[in-house]
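Page 42, continued from yesterday. The earlier attempt failed because a stray header line got pasted into the input along with the sequence. Redoing it now with the clean sequence only.
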Amino acid sequence: MSGPSQHDGLEAERWKGFGLERQVLMIANEMHRARRFLDDAGQPERLRACYRRVLRLLDLTVEVNPRPTLRRELLRLREVMAALYLAEAPRPAEHRRALRALLQLSPPAARQLAHL
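This time it went through. Structure tokens are written below.
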């Protein structure tokens, strides 16, 4: 297992201050980082490290957003990301679907779908 993540010390109050659009985009950034390792079978730990960061940020997002419907969707996405984290082999198609679902959680972030 790798060392601490840059998000380990991130507090919920600070994360809340970013707002949903920026939270979604920051999670998407980690998922974009993970894409580099999807095809690199020699670096599974780097892919898992990205997924750990995604899971941490999703947890914070659930914690700071009180809307029940949003929380439900975030928790569904978290289940998918946890499955990707635990998968024996990379799953690029599931990764892409999860990234698309994430971006659709915020209308401004959804504009990024055109760039996928």
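Notes: The chain has a mean pLDDT of 90.
Reminder to self: strip header lines before submitting.
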